[in-house]
């Protein structure tokens, strides 16, 4: 069971990163974005491409860092992937969501997001193939932390957790100490007052997509490091990430972080009692329970 | 006698087919307090919001010192030197007092710290509670914070929507007197008020709106004792067709 | 010649079955404004229900009640309705985007359950042991398929007429009132929650009918038949045809199913062998592009809703 708990924390950090962007977009633009999870796939594959590119251009970069399977090339590639995914998110909004918003309204955006998700997922499949891929061919042995209770952890997983926590700490610093962070929180609380206070809403929305996309890319790479990369990476994480935002409360970044860990832990602890085939249903049950007991989630509030 | 802000024949409403303002004109003189009063539904708040860019103006013009600022981008009004204090939800509750002020001061650059100091001198209670979340303030303190946020951008014109709403008579008096004092520094004040007597005592000029149109206007002191004000409020008298 | 005709019969049968499902969705979305992101769960409930009730006893899973066909079909519809009732009570009062997520989750959970619960429904292997009605009398050939097509089209027409009458009835007016302005409807003393639940259940029962027919047609159902893609296909059909409009719904179904099968055929005929592995991907991209394209270009659909006059103008 402790193994489940630890696994839950590790996957939870990935869900948290994915949920932060989703909660911001859902709150500001008022639509359930079923294509957000595909940003994780875009990030994972972008990193794969640039990892290969950097390693080919400058072979020493292909060396792994310490006990991890992560290479210097992949580290650089991840940063680039975050930028690319952020840009992709903005482009998708400009091309599709902003225009559907202008024409139809909030519900049309949800349908549109279904369509966008299918397009992204299958275009990735066409480009990269349907098979699963890995960042590194090296066999990485999990380290036995303890024998009783039995606890196995891969160094890559620890790295992912620490990196995710660092990213979240940076975000926290921005939100609590910079005027940009205040502007982001202001826009979430009261968009018209924010405008009147001199904040350009369109620019903020663009920045929200960039940040959300960047975080999703990191999450995608971390997921790919611990598991594998394939076109359905995003699709498999749609419900858990939605669950994280709903648990935390839509619009609350801290809620999304907490929600991610809670969903990750709950999903893995559930495996103690449920057969593993049922694990995709656990996030759904969590969503149902939260919506029945406390629909606004832990920290959510209605927008002003 | 210069006019800082002029609105001419404004037709405006939230929805294009349903104008709330049908034909409203007014002028706010520089460094004077101009107050807008009228019965509920007259369109007073809508007029202020239309000037600030939050409600679309279908026809008519708004001039600021002669320059056309009709239908502005609301976030650019600060650059024009116009500040707007909404009636409610006029501060960010989840941010601290300090963060609220830092937010509006972010365009002030190097001048920021000096302005913050000046604001804290003007509003000592805000300095004391600067690390508290704005949502924990009392009604009066919130209003002072909202005014401080407006002053932070060193505006030439301040639009205020019912600044005394929800406040105790004493706090209401303080806020209105503060607005009066600002004109001595050259700031033009245009405010909407329900608190007719208090507002007329402190204002220079007054416009009365009803049913989305001008009714009468004149020096505040004259209207203070004019029975026509009461008649318009009670719905009996109308100077313009509805 | 018989080959082409046979294929057309096959096409028309599936298109008609899917049309019934789209009509059910139209009742929920077009008429009542409810976002059902898990259409496939109710379709599947009808399909699985029909086969379980109507099939011969099997060793490894539930079922084999061997009920007469029409009863089994009806039973499948009832099961779909029950599922809708439970889901509806729990989720219908939610904001529209929460409803989308919750219903999507229902579909994921449904497929997950069907895939894992071997004792219930055969798991990944699917449900067997069902024989198509009247098979012994009529055989497996062209005649049977034509008769089944007629049966299906008959049900489609019946559903269509039923829904058209429903729209013009007081209940239909109530649905429209609630869709347009819930507060006003409430002030008239109607309970919107009850009405919406009724519409949701009714639409799901219709989807269950489609599912039952689908399962009957193939005499088989498995988790592969209840994947999210079917929800998206049915939504695409409604979006293309025109939400709120029953005729549009049916047209949309035939159009999209036509495009789907045509693209599948074209890819298998003309594409090089190694590309054919990706036929599914290409088709999914096409559906995605159709959905996004329609929403950008003509969100009201190709056959947009005409305003329904509630009462004639005569004095």
TL;DR?
Chain B has 242 residues and is of the alpha/beta class.
CATH class of one domain in chain B: Alpha Beta
- Order of neighbouring strands in the sheet with most strands of chain B: 6-7-8-3-9-10
CATH architecture of chain A: Orthogonal Bundle
| Strand elements of chain A, count | 2
The stretches of 5 or more residues of chain A where confidence is low (pLDDT under 50) are none
CATH topology of chain A: ABC transporter involved in vitamin B12 uptake, BtuC
> What is the succession of H and E elements of chain A?
HHHHEEHHHHHHH
Q: What characterizes the major β-sheet of chain A?
A: 2 strands, antiparallel
Overall pLDDT confidence of chain B: 89
Oligomer: heterotrimer
Span of the ends, CA to CA of chain A:
43 Å
Overall description:
The complex is a heterotrimer of chains A (304), B (242) and C (315). Chain A is an all-alpha fold. Chain A has a single domain (2-292), classed as ABC transporter involved in vitamin B12 uptake, BtuC (Orthogonal Bundle). Chain A has eleven helices and two strands. Chain A has helices spanning 2-29, 36-57, 72-103, 106-128, 155-177, 179-189, 191-196, 201-226, 233-248, 253-273, 281-293, and strands spanning 143-146, 151-153. Chain A has a two-stranded antiparallel ribbon. In chain A, helix 2 (36-57) packs across helix 8 (201-226), helix 3 packs across helix 8 (201-226) and helix 5 (155-177) packs antiparallel against helix 8. Chain A starts with a helix and ends in an 11-residue tail after the last helix. The mean pLDDT of chain A is 89. Chain B has a domain at 3-87 and 157-233: P-loop containing nucleotide triphosphate hydrolases (Rossmann fold, 3-Layer(aba) Sandwich). With 242 residues, chain B is an alpha/beta fold. Chain B has helices spanning 44-52, 97-105, 112-122, 124-128, 139-152, 169-184, 196-202, 220-224, 227-233; strands spanning 3-12, 21-29, 33-37, 57-64, 67-68, 82-85, 157-161, 188-192, 205-210, 213-219. In chain B, 34% of the residues lie in helices and 25% in strands. In chain B, a hairpin with a 2-residue loop joins strand 4 (57-64) and strand 5 (67-68). Chain C has helices at residues 2-31, 39-54, 69-91, 96-116, 118-121, 135-138, 142-168, 170-180, 182-187, 192-218, 228-241, 246-270, 279-297. In chain C, helix 1 (2-31) runs parallel beside helix 7, helix 7 crosses helix 8 (170-180) and helix 12 (246-270) runs antiparallel to helix 13. In chain C, 72% of the residues lie in helices and 0% in strands. Chain C is globular, with a radius of gyration of 20 Å. By secondary structure, chain C is mainly α. Classes of the chains: A mainly alpha (304), B alpha/beta (242), C mainly alpha (315). Chain A binds chain B through residues 179, 182-183, 185-186, 189-190, 192-201, 304, and chain B through 52, 54, 73-75, 77-79, 84, 86, 89-95, 99-100, 102-104, 106-107, 149, 153.
């Amino acid at each position: 069971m402790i193994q489940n708990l630890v696994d839950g924390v590790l996957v939870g950090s990935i869900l948290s990163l994915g949920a932060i962007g989703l909660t911001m977009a859902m709150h500001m633009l008022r639509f359930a974005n079923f294509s957000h999870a595909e940003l994780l796939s875009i990030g994972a594959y972008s990193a794969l491409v640039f990892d290969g590119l950097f390693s080919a251009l400058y072979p020493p970069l292909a060396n792994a860092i310490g006990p991890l399977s992560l290479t210097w090339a992949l580290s650089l590639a991840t940063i680039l992937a975050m930028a690319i995914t952020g840009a992709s998110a903005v482009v998708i909004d400009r091309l599709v969501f902003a225009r559907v918003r202008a024409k139809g309204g909030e519900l049309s955006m949800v349908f549109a997001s279904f369509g966008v998700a299918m397009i992204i997922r299958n275009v990735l499949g066409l480009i990269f193939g349907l098979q699963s891929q890995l960042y590194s061919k090296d066999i990485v042995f999990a380290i036995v932390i303890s024998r009783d209770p039995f606890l196995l952890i891969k160094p890559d997983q620890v790295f992912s957790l620490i990196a995710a926590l660092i990213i979240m700490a940076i975000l926290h610093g921005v939100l609590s100490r910079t005027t940009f962070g205040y502007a982001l929180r202001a826009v979430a609380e009261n968009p018209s007052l924010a405008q009147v206070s001199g904040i350009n809403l369109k620019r903020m929305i663009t920045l929200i997509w960039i940040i959300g996309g960047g975080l999703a890319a990191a999450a995608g790479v971390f997921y790919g490091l611990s598991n594998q990369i394939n076109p359905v990476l995003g699709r498999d994480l749609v419900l858990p990430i939605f669950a994280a935002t709903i648990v935390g409360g839509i619009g609350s970044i801290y809620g999304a972080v907490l929600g991610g860990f809670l969903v990750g832990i709950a999903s893995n602890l559930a495996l103690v009692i449920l057969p593993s085939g049922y694990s995709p249903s656990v996030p759904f049950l969590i969503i149902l329970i939260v919506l029945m007991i406390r629909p606004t989630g832990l920290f959510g509030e209605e927008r002003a | 006698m210069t006019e800082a802000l002029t609105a001419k024949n404004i037709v405006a409403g939230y929805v294009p087919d349903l104008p709330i303002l049908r034909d409203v004109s007014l002028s706010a003189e520089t460094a004077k307090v101009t107050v807008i009063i009228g019965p509920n539904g007259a369109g007073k708040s809508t007029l202020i919001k239309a000037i600030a860019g939050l409600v679309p103006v279908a026809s008519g013009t708004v001039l600021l010192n002669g320059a056309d600022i009709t239908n502005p981008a609301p976030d650019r009004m600060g650059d024009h030197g116009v500040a707007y204090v909404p009636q409610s939800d006029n501060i960010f509750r989840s941010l601290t007092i300090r963060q609220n002020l830092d937010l509006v001061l972010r365009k002030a650059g190097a001048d920021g710290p000096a302005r913050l100091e000046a604001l804290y001198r003007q509003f000592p209670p805000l300095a004391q509670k600067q690390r508290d979340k704005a949502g924990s303030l009392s009604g009066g303190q919130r209003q002072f914070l909202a005014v401080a946020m407006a002053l932070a951008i060193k505006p030439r014109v301040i639009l205020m929507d019912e600044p005394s709403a929800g406040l105790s008579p004493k706090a209401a008096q303080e806020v209105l007197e503060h607005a009066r004092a600002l004109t001595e520094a050259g700031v033009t004040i245009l405010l909407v008020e329900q608190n007719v007597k208090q507002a007329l005592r402190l204002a220079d000029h007054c416009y009365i709106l009803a049913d989305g149109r001008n009714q009468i206007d004149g020096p505040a002191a004259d209207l203070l004792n004019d029975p026509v004000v009461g008649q318009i409020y009670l719905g009996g008298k109308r100077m313009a067709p509805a | 010649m018989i080959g082409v005709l046979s294929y057309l019969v096959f096409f028309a049968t599936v298109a008609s079955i899917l049309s019934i499902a789209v009509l059910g969705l139209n009742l929920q979305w077009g008429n009542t404004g409810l976002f059902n992101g898990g259409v496939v769960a109710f379709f599947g409930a009808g399909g699985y229900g029909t086969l379980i009730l109507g099939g011969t006893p099997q060793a490894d899973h539930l079922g084999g009640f061997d009920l007469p066909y029409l009863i089994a079909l009806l039973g499948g519809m009832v099961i779909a309705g029950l599922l809708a009732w439970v889901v509806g009570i729990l989720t219908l009062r939610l904001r529209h985007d929460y409803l989308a997520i919750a219903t999507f989750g229902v579909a994921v959970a449904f497929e997950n359950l069907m895939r894992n619960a071997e004792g219930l429904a055969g798991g990944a292997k699917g449900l067997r042991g069902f024989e198509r009605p009247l098979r012994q009398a009529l055989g497996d050939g062209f005649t049977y398929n034509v008769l089944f097509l007629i049966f299906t089209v008959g049900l489609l027409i019946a559903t269509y007429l039923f829904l058209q009458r429903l729209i013009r009835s007081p209940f239909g007016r109530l649905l429209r009132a609630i869709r347009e302005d819930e507060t006003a409807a409430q002030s008239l003393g109607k309970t919107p929650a009850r009405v919406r639940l009724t519409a949701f259940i009714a639409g799901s029962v219709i989807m269950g009918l489609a599912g039952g027919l689908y399962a009957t047609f193939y005499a088989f159902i498995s988790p592969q038949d209840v994947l999210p893609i079917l929800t998206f296909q049915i939504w695409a059909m409604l979006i293309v045809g025109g939400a709120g409009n029953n005729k549009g719904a049916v047209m949309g179904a035939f159009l999209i199913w036509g495009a789907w099968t045509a693209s599948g055929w074209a890819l298998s005929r003309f594409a090089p062998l190694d590309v054919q592995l990706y036929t599914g991907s290409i088709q999914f991209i096409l559906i995605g592009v159709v959905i996004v394209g329609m929403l950008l270009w003509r969100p009201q659909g190709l056959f947009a809703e005409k305003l329904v006059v509630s009462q004639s103008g005569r004095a």
